[in-house]
Amino acid sequence: MTPARLDRLLTVDDQIRDRYLRVPFEVPPGAPGVEVQLTVADPAAVIDLGCEAPSRWCGWAGGARKSFVVRPEEATPGFLPGVEPGTWHLVLGLHQLPVQGVQVQVEVATDSTAEVAAEPLAPLAPAVRGSSRAVPAGAGLTWYAGDFHAHTVHSDGQESIDQLAARAVASGLDFLAVTDHNTISHHRLLGASAARHQVTLLPGQELTTARGHGVAYGDIGWVDFRRPAQHWLAEIERRGGLLAVSHPAEGDCAWQHQLDRAPHALELWHISWFRDLTATAPWAFWQLLEHLPGSARTALIGGSDFHAPGAGWTLGTPTTWVAAAECTPEAILAGVAAGRTAISLGVRPDATPDPLGTPLLLRHDGDLLALAGSGAVLVDALGRRRRILADEVRVSGDWGRGPYHLEDPVRRVLAICR
Fold first, then answer.
1. What is the CATH number of domain 4-109?
2. Residue 5 main-chain phi, psi, to 5 deg
3. Most buried one in 61, 312, 379, 384, CB count within 10 A?
4. Separation of alpha carbons 189 and 192, rounded Å
5. Quick one: average pLDDT of 266-293?
6. Which fold has domain 130-358?
7. What's this model's pTM, rounded to 2 decimal places?
8. Is 321 helix (H, G, I), strand (E, B) or coil?
9. What is the number of other CB atoms lying within 10 angstroms of the CB of residue 113?
10. In the chain, what's the furthest Cα-to-Cα distance?
Protein backbone atom coordinates (compact mmCIF):
# COMPACT_ATOMS: atom_id res chain seq x y z
CA MET A 1 0.00 0.00 0.00
CA THR A 2 1.03 3.61 -0.58
CA PRO A 3 1.08 6.06 2.35
CA ALA A 4 -2.35 7.04 3.66
CA ARG A 5 -4.28 9.40 1.41
CA LEU A 6 -6.51 10.34 4.31
CA ASP A 7 -5.79 10.19 8.03
CA ARG A 8 -7.99 12.56 9.98
CA LEU A 9 -10.73 13.01 12.52
CA LEU A 10 -14.17 13.16 10.92
CA THR A 11 -16.88 14.96 12.90
CA VAL A 12 -20.52 15.88 12.63
CA ASP A 13 -19.38 19.22 11.20
CA ASP A 14 -17.96 17.31 8.21
CA GLN A 15 -21.27 15.51 7.82
CA ILE A 16 -23.16 18.81 7.92
CA ARG A 17 -20.93 20.28 5.20
CA ASP A 18 -21.35 17.29 2.89
CA ARG A 19 -22.64 13.81 3.71
CA TYR A 20 -20.47 12.43 0.85
CA LEU A 21 -16.80 13.28 1.37
CA ARG A 22 -14.72 12.98 -1.83
CA VAL A 23 -11.03 12.07 -1.47
CA PRO A 24 -9.01 12.50 -4.69
CA PHE A 25 -6.12 10.30 -5.79
CA GLU A 26 -4.20 9.88 -9.03
CA VAL A 27 -3.97 6.72 -11.12
CA PRO A 28 -1.02 6.76 -13.57
CA PRO A 29 -1.22 5.38 -17.13
CA GLY A 30 -0.65 1.64 -17.25
CA ALA A 31 -1.58 1.07 -13.60
CA PRO A 32 -2.37 -2.64 -13.11
CA GLY A 33 -5.04 -2.08 -10.48
CA VAL A 34 -6.44 0.03 -7.67
CA GLU A 35 -6.67 -1.33 -4.14
CA VAL A 36 -8.29 0.59 -1.28
CA GLN A 37 -8.36 -0.09 2.46
CA LEU A 38 -10.55 1.88 4.90
CA THR A 39 -9.92 1.79 8.65
CA VAL A 40 -12.44 3.29 11.07
CA ALA A 41 -11.28 3.56 14.67
CA ASP A 42 -14.70 3.46 16.37
CA PRO A 43 -17.08 0.57 15.50
CA ALA A 44 -20.01 2.79 16.49
CA ALA A 45 -19.33 4.92 13.41
CA VAL A 46 -20.82 3.94 10.05
CA ILE A 47 -18.71 5.10 7.10
CA ASP A 48 -19.85 3.98 3.63
CA LEU A 49 -17.23 3.32 0.96
CA GLY A 50 -17.61 4.19 -2.73
CA CYS A 51 -15.49 5.24 -5.68
CA GLU A 52 -15.64 7.43 -8.80
CA ALA A 53 -13.32 6.92 -11.77
CA PRO A 54 -12.52 9.94 -13.99
CA SER A 55 -15.34 9.19 -16.45
CA ARG A 56 -17.87 7.11 -14.50
CA TRP A 57 -19.17 5.86 -11.19
CA CYS A 58 -17.00 2.88 -10.24
CA GLY A 59 -19.06 1.39 -7.42
CA TRP A 60 -20.32 1.39 -3.86
CA ALA A 61 -19.76 -0.96 -0.94
CA GLY A 62 -21.77 1.03 1.58
CA GLY A 63 -20.91 -0.20 5.05
CA ALA A 64 -20.63 -3.83 3.92
CA ARG A 65 -16.91 -3.68 3.04
CA LYS A 66 -13.83 -1.83 4.19
CA SER A 67 -11.72 -2.63 1.12
CA PHE A 68 -11.97 -3.26 -2.59
CA VAL A 69 -9.89 -3.98 -5.67
CA VAL A 70 -10.44 -2.76 -9.25
CA ARG A 71 -8.49 -4.45 -12.04
CA PRO A 72 -8.79 -4.00 -15.84
CA GLU A 73 -10.97 -7.12 -16.28
CA GLU A 74 -12.29 -7.83 -12.79
CA ALA A 75 -13.31 -6.09 -9.59
CA THR A 76 -14.60 -6.71 -6.08
CA PRO A 77 -18.39 -7.21 -6.16
CA GLY A 78 -20.07 -3.84 -5.99
CA PHE A 79 -17.47 -2.25 -8.29
CA LEU A 80 -16.97 -2.17 -12.05
CA PRO A 81 -13.73 -3.40 -13.66
CA GLY A 82 -11.57 -1.04 -15.68
CA VAL A 83 -8.55 1.09 -14.68
CA GLU A 84 -8.33 4.43 -16.46
CA PRO A 85 -5.62 7.02 -15.79
CA GLY A 86 -6.48 10.32 -14.20
CA THR A 87 -7.99 11.69 -11.02
CA TRP A 88 -10.17 9.23 -9.12
CA HIS A 89 -12.18 9.96 -5.98
CA LEU A 90 -13.01 7.81 -3.02
CA VAL A 91 -16.49 8.68 -1.79
CA LEU A 92 -16.97 8.29 1.94
CA GLY A 93 -20.59 8.32 3.06
CA LEU A 94 -20.71 9.86 6.53
CA HIS A 95 -23.78 7.94 7.60
CA GLN A 96 -23.30 7.80 11.38
CA LEU A 97 -20.66 9.63 13.42
CA PRO A 98 -20.19 9.70 17.20
CA VAL A 99 -20.39 13.09 18.92
CA GLN A 100 -16.67 13.12 19.60
CA GLY A 101 -15.86 12.27 15.98
CA VAL A 102 -13.96 9.29 14.63
CA GLN A 103 -10.44 8.78 13.30
CA VAL A 104 -10.51 7.47 9.75
CA GLN A 105 -7.60 6.24 7.65
CA VAL A 106 -7.70 5.44 3.94
CA GLU A 107 -4.85 3.75 2.07
CA VAL A 108 -4.71 3.55 -1.70
CA ALA A 109 -2.41 1.47 -3.91
CA THR A 110 -2.39 1.98 -7.68
CA ASP A 111 0.07 -0.84 -8.38
CA SER A 112 -2.16 -3.64 -7.13
CA THR A 113 -2.09 -7.04 -8.82
CA ALA A 114 -4.39 -8.65 -6.25
CA GLU A 115 -6.71 -11.27 -7.69
CA VAL A 116 -10.47 -11.11 -7.24
CA ALA A 117 -12.15 -14.37 -6.29
CA ALA A 118 -14.88 -15.56 -8.64
CA GLU A 119 -18.42 -15.52 -7.29
CA PRO A 120 -19.61 -19.03 -6.34
CA LEU A 121 -22.06 -20.93 -8.55
CA ALA A 122 -25.13 -22.71 -7.18
CA PRO A 123 -26.46 -26.13 -8.22
CA LEU A 124 -29.42 -26.19 -10.59
CA ALA A 125 -32.74 -26.76 -8.84
CA PRO A 126 -35.80 -27.25 -11.08
CA ALA A 127 -39.05 -26.23 -9.40
CA VAL A 128 -42.66 -25.31 -10.11
CA ARG A 129 -42.95 -21.61 -10.98
CA GLY A 130 -45.74 -19.21 -10.07
CA SER A 131 -46.81 -18.98 -13.71
CA SER A 132 -47.64 -22.70 -13.54
CA ARG A 133 -50.71 -21.70 -11.54
CA ALA A 134 -52.26 -20.46 -14.82
CA VAL A 135 -54.05 -17.55 -13.14
CA PRO A 136 -56.70 -16.05 -15.47
CA ALA A 137 -55.19 -13.15 -17.42
CA GLY A 138 -56.12 -10.93 -20.34
CA ALA A 139 -55.62 -11.97 -23.94
CA GLY A 140 -51.95 -12.58 -24.73
CA LEU A 141 -50.89 -12.15 -21.09
CA THR A 142 -49.64 -14.45 -18.32
CA TRP A 143 -49.40 -13.73 -14.60
CA TYR A 144 -45.75 -14.19 -13.59
CA ALA A 145 -44.63 -14.43 -9.95
CA GLY A 146 -41.64 -12.48 -8.72
CA ASP A 147 -39.89 -10.36 -6.15
CA PHE A 148 -38.82 -6.76 -6.74
CA HIS A 149 -36.23 -6.34 -3.97
CA ALA A 150 -33.12 -8.47 -3.25
CA HIS A 151 -29.39 -8.03 -2.62
CA THR A 152 -26.20 -9.92 -3.41
CA VAL A 153 -22.51 -9.68 -2.51
CA HIS A 154 -22.41 -6.65 -4.81
CA SER A 155 -23.71 -4.67 -1.83
CA ASP A 156 -24.63 -5.98 1.62
CA GLY A 157 -26.10 -9.37 0.66
CA GLN A 158 -24.36 -12.64 1.48
CA GLU A 159 -25.04 -14.66 -1.67
CA SER A 160 -23.67 -14.42 -5.20
CA ILE A 161 -25.90 -13.58 -8.14
CA ASP A 162 -25.92 -17.24 -9.14
CA GLN A 163 -26.87 -18.40 -5.65
CA LEU A 164 -29.69 -15.84 -5.57
CA ALA A 165 -30.94 -17.03 -8.97
CA ALA A 166 -31.05 -20.62 -7.70
CA ARG A 167 -32.93 -19.47 -4.61
CA ALA A 168 -35.48 -17.66 -6.79
CA VAL A 169 -36.15 -20.90 -8.68
CA ALA A 170 -36.47 -22.87 -5.42
CA SER A 171 -38.98 -20.26 -4.20
CA GLY A 172 -41.19 -20.78 -7.24
CA LEU A 173 -40.48 -17.39 -8.81
CA ASP A 174 -40.53 -16.59 -12.51
CA PHE A 175 -38.54 -13.37 -12.08
CA LEU A 176 -36.41 -11.53 -9.54
CA ALA A 177 -35.15 -7.95 -9.43
CA VAL A 178 -31.57 -7.68 -8.16
CA THR A 179 -31.36 -4.29 -6.47
CA ASP A 180 -27.95 -3.77 -4.91
CA HIS A 181 -27.30 -0.47 -3.15
CA ASN A 182 -25.99 2.48 -5.18
CA THR A 183 -24.20 0.36 -7.78
CA ILE A 184 -24.77 -1.34 -11.12
CA SER A 185 -21.77 -3.68 -10.95
CA HIS A 186 -24.15 -6.65 -10.89
CA HIS A 187 -26.05 -5.69 -14.06
CA ARG A 188 -23.48 -7.03 -16.52
CA LEU A 189 -23.49 -10.42 -14.74
CA LEU A 190 -27.24 -11.07 -14.55
CA GLY A 191 -27.61 -12.61 -18.01
CA ALA A 192 -25.32 -15.59 -17.38
CA SER A 193 -27.04 -16.66 -14.16
CA ALA A 194 -30.49 -16.01 -15.62
CA ALA A 195 -29.72 -18.31 -18.54
CA ARG A 196 -28.11 -20.96 -16.34
CA HIS A 197 -31.10 -21.21 -13.99
CA GLN A 198 -33.83 -20.33 -16.49
CA VAL A 199 -35.15 -17.46 -14.38
CA THR A 200 -35.62 -13.83 -15.39
CA LEU A 201 -33.34 -11.41 -13.52
CA LEU A 202 -34.27 -7.73 -13.68
CA PRO A 203 -31.55 -5.08 -13.34
CA GLY A 204 -32.20 -2.71 -10.45
CA GLN A 205 -30.30 -0.37 -8.14
CA GLU A 206 -31.50 0.71 -4.71
CA LEU A 207 -30.88 4.44 -4.34
CA THR A 208 -29.95 4.43 -0.67
CA THR A 209 -29.81 7.61 1.39
CA ALA A 210 -30.31 8.77 4.97
CA ARG A 211 -33.75 10.16 4.04
CA GLY A 212 -35.19 7.08 2.42
CA HIS A 213 -34.65 4.56 -0.38
CA GLY A 214 -35.97 4.13 -3.88
CA VAL A 215 -35.27 1.55 -6.58
CA ALA A 216 -34.47 2.34 -10.21
CA TYR A 217 -35.50 -0.56 -12.45
CA GLY A 218 -34.13 -1.19 -15.92
CA ASP A 219 -30.78 -1.39 -17.67
CA ILE A 220 -30.45 2.39 -17.65
CA GLY A 221 -26.97 3.03 -16.23
CA TRP A 222 -26.05 4.33 -12.81
CA VAL A 223 -28.31 6.92 -11.19
CA ASP A 224 -26.67 9.43 -8.86
CA PHE A 225 -28.29 8.76 -5.47
CA ARG A 226 -26.68 11.93 -4.08
CA ARG A 227 -29.04 14.10 -6.13
CA PRO A 228 -32.58 15.04 -4.99
CA ALA A 229 -35.32 12.46 -5.52
CA GLN A 230 -36.98 14.79 -8.03
CA HIS A 231 -33.86 14.33 -10.17
CA TRP A 232 -34.04 10.56 -9.77
CA LEU A 233 -37.58 10.46 -11.10
CA ALA A 234 -36.88 12.73 -14.07
CA GLU A 235 -33.61 11.01 -15.01
CA ILE A 236 -34.95 7.47 -14.68
CA GLU A 237 -37.96 8.40 -16.76
CA ARG A 238 -35.77 10.04 -19.41
CA ARG A 239 -33.73 6.84 -19.72
CA GLY A 240 -36.79 4.59 -19.97
CA GLY A 241 -36.70 3.04 -16.50
CA LEU A 242 -39.08 2.95 -13.56
CA LEU A 243 -38.71 4.42 -10.06
CA ALA A 244 -40.29 2.79 -7.02
CA VAL A 245 -40.39 4.23 -3.51
CA SER A 246 -39.09 1.50 -1.20
CA HIS A 247 -40.42 0.50 2.27
CA PRO A 248 -41.91 3.97 2.80
CA ALA A 249 -42.85 3.43 6.46
CA GLU A 250 -39.91 1.33 7.65
CA GLY A 251 -37.95 2.53 10.68
CA ASP A 252 -35.05 4.86 9.95
CA CYS A 253 -35.36 4.06 6.22
CA ALA A 254 -38.83 5.62 5.90
CA TRP A 255 -39.41 7.89 2.90
CA GLN A 256 -38.75 11.59 3.66
CA HIS A 257 -37.76 12.83 0.19
CA GLN A 258 -39.90 15.38 -1.62
CA LEU A 259 -41.62 14.56 -4.93
CA ASP A 260 -43.94 16.85 -6.88
CA ARG A 261 -45.47 13.91 -8.76
CA ALA A 262 -46.01 10.27 -8.03
CA PRO A 263 -43.38 7.60 -8.73
CA HIS A 264 -43.97 4.83 -11.25
CA ALA A 265 -44.35 2.24 -8.47
CA LEU A 266 -44.64 1.92 -4.71
CA GLU A 267 -43.24 -0.95 -2.67
CA LEU A 268 -46.40 -1.00 -0.56
CA TRP A 269 -45.78 -4.51 0.83
CA HIS A 270 -42.26 -4.83 2.18
CA ILE A 271 -41.04 -7.77 4.25
CA SER A 272 -41.27 -5.54 7.35
CA TRP A 273 -45.09 -5.66 7.16
CA PHE A 274 -44.90 -9.31 8.25
CA ARG A 275 -43.97 -8.13 11.74
CA ASP A 276 -47.62 -7.11 12.06
CA LEU A 277 -49.90 -7.85 9.12
CA THR A 278 -52.66 -5.80 10.77
CA ALA A 279 -50.53 -2.62 10.70
CA THR A 280 -52.02 0.27 8.73
CA ALA A 281 -48.95 2.50 8.22
CA PRO A 282 -48.48 1.38 4.56
CA TRP A 283 -52.10 2.34 3.80
CA ALA A 284 -51.57 5.71 5.50
CA PHE A 285 -48.57 6.39 3.27
CA TRP A 286 -50.58 5.44 0.19
CA GLN A 287 -53.31 7.93 1.15
CA LEU A 288 -50.67 10.68 1.18
CA LEU A 289 -49.08 9.60 -2.10
CA GLU A 290 -52.38 9.31 -3.99
CA HIS A 291 -52.79 13.09 -3.82
CA LEU A 292 -49.72 13.59 -6.01
CA PRO A 293 -50.22 14.10 -9.76
CA GLY A 294 -49.79 10.83 -11.65
CA SER A 295 -50.71 8.55 -8.73
CA ALA A 296 -53.44 6.91 -10.81
CA ARG A 297 -50.62 5.22 -12.76
CA THR A 298 -48.53 4.20 -9.73
CA ALA A 299 -48.23 0.40 -9.63
CA LEU A 300 -48.21 -1.45 -6.31
CA ILE A 301 -45.39 -3.95 -5.82
CA GLY A 302 -43.81 -5.95 -3.01
CA GLY A 303 -40.30 -6.92 -2.00
CA SER A 304 -38.63 -9.36 0.36
CA ASP A 305 -35.51 -7.18 0.69
CA PHE A 306 -33.65 -10.49 0.90
CA HIS A 307 -30.03 -10.28 2.08
CA ALA A 308 -29.07 -13.65 3.53
CA PRO A 309 -30.32 -17.12 4.37
CA GLY A 310 -31.30 -17.72 7.96
CA ALA A 311 -33.23 -14.47 8.36
CA GLY A 312 -36.55 -16.28 8.74
CA TRP A 313 -37.88 -15.69 5.24
CA THR A 314 -36.84 -16.25 1.68
CA LEU A 315 -37.37 -14.72 -1.74
CA GLY A 316 -40.97 -14.09 -2.74
CA THR A 317 -42.06 -12.96 0.72
CA PRO A 318 -44.28 -11.28 -0.37
CA THR A 319 -44.74 -12.29 -4.02
CA THR A 320 -45.57 -9.72 -6.69
CA TRP A 321 -47.54 -10.95 -9.71
CA VAL A 322 -47.22 -9.14 -13.04
CA ALA A 323 -49.42 -9.76 -16.07
CA ALA A 324 -47.01 -9.57 -19.01
CA ALA A 325 -46.77 -10.69 -22.63
CA GLU A 326 -43.64 -12.71 -21.83
CA CYS A 327 -41.22 -13.24 -19.00
CA THR A 328 -38.43 -10.91 -20.08
CA PRO A 329 -37.12 -7.91 -18.12
CA GLU A 330 -38.61 -5.54 -20.69
CA ALA A 331 -42.04 -7.21 -20.68
CA ILE A 332 -42.20 -7.47 -16.88
CA LEU A 333 -41.38 -3.77 -16.49
CA ALA A 334 -43.91 -2.91 -19.22
CA GLY A 335 -46.51 -4.80 -17.18
CA VAL A 336 -45.61 -2.77 -14.10
CA ALA A 337 -45.78 0.47 -16.09
CA ALA A 338 -49.26 -0.53 -17.24
CA GLY A 339 -50.34 -1.20 -13.64
CA ARG A 340 -50.90 -4.93 -14.13
CA THR A 341 -49.67 -6.02 -10.70
CA ALA A 342 -50.96 -7.88 -7.65
CA ILE A 343 -49.29 -8.88 -4.37
CA SER A 344 -49.76 -12.01 -2.28
CA LEU A 345 -48.32 -13.49 0.91
CA GLY A 346 -46.05 -15.67 -1.17
CA VAL A 347 -43.61 -17.71 0.87
CA ARG A 348 -44.53 -17.09 4.49
CA PRO A 349 -41.96 -17.44 7.27
CA ASP A 350 -44.19 -19.95 9.08
CA ALA A 351 -45.24 -22.14 6.14
CA THR A 352 -43.85 -24.48 3.54
CA PRO A 353 -43.20 -22.51 0.32
CA ASP A 354 -46.37 -22.77 -1.78
CA PRO A 355 -46.59 -20.03 -4.44
CA LEU A 356 -49.42 -21.97 -6.10
CA GLY A 357 -51.73 -22.06 -3.09
CA THR A 358 -51.75 -18.64 -1.46
CA PRO A 359 -54.78 -16.30 -1.74
CA LEU A 360 -54.70 -13.94 -4.71
CA LEU A 361 -56.62 -10.78 -5.57
CA LEU A 362 -56.24 -9.39 -9.08
CA ARG A 363 -57.91 -7.60 -11.95
CA HIS A 364 -59.41 -9.66 -14.78
CA ASP A 365 -61.55 -8.22 -17.58
CA GLY A 366 -62.14 -5.12 -15.47
CA ASP A 367 -63.46 -7.08 -12.47
CA LEU A 368 -61.85 -8.10 -9.20
CA LEU A 369 -61.02 -11.80 -8.98
CA ALA A 370 -60.35 -13.41 -5.60
CA LEU A 371 -58.68 -16.82 -5.75
CA ALA A 372 -58.09 -19.31 -2.90
CA GLY A 373 -59.57 -16.73 -0.53
CA SER A 374 -62.60 -18.50 0.91
CA GLY A 375 -63.26 -17.13 4.38
CA ALA A 376 -61.41 -13.86 3.74
CA VAL A 377 -62.88 -10.37 3.63
CA LEU A 378 -62.49 -8.02 0.66
CA VAL A 379 -61.76 -4.45 1.79
CA ASP A 380 -61.59 -1.28 -0.33
CA ALA A 381 -59.60 1.92 0.25
CA LEU A 382 -62.49 3.49 2.19
CA GLY A 383 -62.86 0.53 4.52
CA ARG A 384 -65.94 -0.99 2.91
CA ARG A 385 -66.01 -4.76 3.40
CA ARG A 386 -67.40 -7.81 1.60
CA ARG A 387 -67.10 -11.47 2.56
CA ILE A 388 -65.47 -14.00 0.22
CA LEU A 389 -67.30 -17.33 0.53
CA ALA A 390 -65.71 -19.45 -2.20
CA ASP A 391 -62.27 -20.20 -3.62
CA GLU A 392 -63.04 -18.24 -6.79
CA VAL A 393 -65.15 -15.11 -6.50
CA ARG A 394 -65.62 -12.39 -9.11
CA VAL A 395 -66.63 -8.92 -7.91
CA SER A 396 -67.75 -6.13 -10.22
CA GLY A 397 -64.97 -3.69 -10.96
CA ASP A 398 -67.17 -0.76 -9.96
CA TRP A 399 -67.54 -2.02 -6.37
CA GLY A 400 -65.75 0.27 -3.95
CA ARG A 401 -62.54 2.16 -4.55
CA GLY A 402 -59.02 0.81 -4.94
CA PRO A 403 -56.56 -0.22 -3.78
CA TYR A 404 -58.27 -3.36 -2.55
CA HIS A 405 -57.05 -6.09 -0.27
CA LEU A 406 -58.06 -9.41 1.21
CA GLU A 407 -57.71 -9.84 4.94
CA ASP A 408 -58.35 -12.75 7.26
CA PRO A 409 -60.87 -12.65 10.15
CA VAL A 410 -58.32 -11.00 12.46
CA ARG A 411 -57.53 -8.31 9.84
CA ARG A 412 -54.15 -9.66 8.64
CA VAL A 413 -53.51 -8.70 5.03
CA LEU A 414 -53.46 -11.62 2.60
CA ALA A 415 -53.41 -10.10 -0.90
CA ILE A 416 -53.51 -6.69 -2.60
CA CYS A 417 -54.36 -5.17 -5.97
CA ARG A 418 -55.35 -1.74 -7.29
1. 2.60.120.380
2. -85, -20
3. 61
4. 6
5. 96
6. TIM Barrel (3.20.20)
7. 0.93
8. strand
9. 10
10. 72
